[in-house]
Specification:
The chain is of the alpha+beta class. Helix content is 48%, strand content 17%. Strands 6, 7, 8, 9 and 10 form a 5-stranded antiparallel β-sheet that branches. A 4-stranded antiparallel β-sheet has the order 1-2-4-3. Strands 5-11 form a two-stranded parallel sheet. α1 packs across α2 and α11 packs across α13. The radius of gyration is 35 Å and the shape is elongated. The two termini are 47 Å apart.
Length: 455
């Protein structure tokens, strides 16, 4: 009669020993042999007439070993189903002290398996978390910049005779020269497209009034405003902080002058930007734009607060792991066996992910956070509508529902949508437990704070 015993061998680490007597596996072995005799195709014998002795000689060892191991595994999983220990991953077979399996000498066998147990833990108290909600206040200047951007985006390109406007786009050929404008043999020659306003005031003045095919010689350093020099260096194939390259001279030849005529701020334009919003005046347009920009920055603020919540829960929730077990599991569980060094390098990231999984599972379970079929459908529908970017889809949108029905049958799509929605609920729950201090910041400051954790 088989027996299963369990003992503790380390922190959250138990050993399960399965003992088999001959009676546990021999009947199964004999039955398999008979089945094999009935079905074996061996030259010189009719099917089903192969002597058992011959089958035993040819396949006995393999059938016997398989039956012994299968019986041991079955006993192990029956035990785990009955006892339900909360374990990580799968049990690992212990490789030490395994006696050889010899079908000529049926014997009692003993197999050792190792299990890693999930820790019990308390969540870090969210009420004690010192967090900050960084808020961006949308200014009139931000609304003006976005209005201009939209006017240019929707505008039409014209080709003026000469350079006379900060917004001119210059298609130029840049050729490497010495400071007197003589071409350098084997030097760089590259076409580029630059806006007049990117140049330094001195160079802008030199370019103003120039026409197609005019040229001038300039040194890269000191010729561009702000961070534009780095971009031009990269375009020319240098590293953006290459100071030696910045000392080089180039001849700039104008091949084409362009200017985008900005769209007029009229009803037609307002309706293109906000279809179906029935905006008639510039003031209404700017208010609507301000509202949209504010919504965007509010969602960025929320994401950054969720990032703080994630790190607080991860750093402050105390949890222990069966480290040695998990390292062994990592080592042998991939497609290729990993070296001890690889496992040590991966282990911190792996345990962080594991810790976050346990924390989020606990929050979801304790607070019965769930996603209904309807919520999944609504989310997928919003996703489909999002592809059309607010464009009018006509009156008959029944095709969207049938498209969503198809998406609902795609398990991968469903799983990722479920994870996203349940994670949103998890952070919504966590956010409701805290009272962050509010602090006004600029968009640049908020962008500098973004970590973007992965869950």
């Amino acid at each position: 009669m088989a027996s299963v015993a369990r003992e503790n061998i380390g922190l959250l680490n138990d050993k399960i020993t399965v003992k088999l007597s001959k009676d546990d596996y021999l009947p199964g072995f004999e039955k398999k042999l008979k089945d094999y005799s009935k079905n074996a195709n061996i030259p010189g014998f009719r099917k089903g007439m192969v002597p058992t002795g011959m089958v035993k000689k040819m396949y006995g060892s393999a059938i016997y070993t398989e039956e012994v191991l299968k019986t041991a595994e079955k006993e192990l999983y029956t035990y785990l189903q009955k006892e339900q220990p909360d374990i990580f991953a799968q049990p690992l077979a212990l490789e030490t002290g395994v006696q050889p399996i010899d079908f000529n000498n049926p014997a009692e066998y003993e197999f050792g398996f190792e299990i890693g147990l999930k820790p019990e833990f308390e969540l870090a108290p969210l009420a004690k978390a010192k967090l900050t909600l960084h808020k961006v206040k949308v200014t009139d200047q931000m609304v003006q910049e976005e209005t201009s951007r939209l006017q240019i985006k929707g505008g039409k390109m014209t080709e003026p005779e000469k350079v006379d406007n900060d917004e001119n786009v210059l298609n130029v050929q840049l050729t490497e020269t010495d400071k007197d404008g003589n071409s350098i043999e084997g030097g760089i020659s590259k076409a580029n497209s630059l806006m007049l306003k990117y140049f330094s005031p001195a160079l802008k003045q030199q370019l103003t009034g120039k026409v197609k095919d005019d040229s001038l010689v300039f040194q890269l350093a000191g010729s561009f405003e702000g961070d534009k020099l780095a971009a031009v260096l990269e375009d020319l194939g240098f590293a953006k902080e290459d100071t030696a390259a910045a000392e080089k001279y180039f001849k700039l030849t104008i091949e084409k002058i362009g200017l985008v005529e900005k769209r007029e701020l009229n009803e037609e334009f307002f309706n293109e930007v906000f279809p179906g919003a029935a905006i008639a005046t510039e003031e209404e347009f700017r208010n609507k734009l301000k509202e949209e920009i504010q919504q965007y920055w509010d969602s960025q603020s929320r994401n950054q607060l969720h990032d703080q919540l994630y790190h607080y829960l991860l750093d402050e929730t105390k949890m222990e792991f069966p480290a040695e077990f998990l390292k062994r599991w990592l080592q042998i569980n991939g497609e290729q066996r990993k070296s001890a060094e690889e496992v040590e390098a991966e282990f911190p990231v792996f345990t962080n992910q594991l810790k976050w999984t346990l924390i989020s599972d606990k929050i979801i379970k304790d607070n019965q956070l769930d996603v209904s079929q309807q919520e999944l459908k609504d989310s997928l529908k919003a996703q489909v509508m999002g592809y059309f970017g607010g464009a009018s889809l006509g009156d008959d949108t029944s095709w969207i529902d049938s498209y969503v029905e198809r998406m609902m049958k795609d398990e991968k799509q469903l799983e990722s949508t479920y994870r996203r929605l349940v994670t949103e609920k998890l952070f919504g729950w966590a956010q409701a437990q805290v009272t962050p201090a509010e602090k006004e910041v600029t968009p640049e400051e908020l962008n500098g704070l973004q970590h973007h954790h992965h869950h």
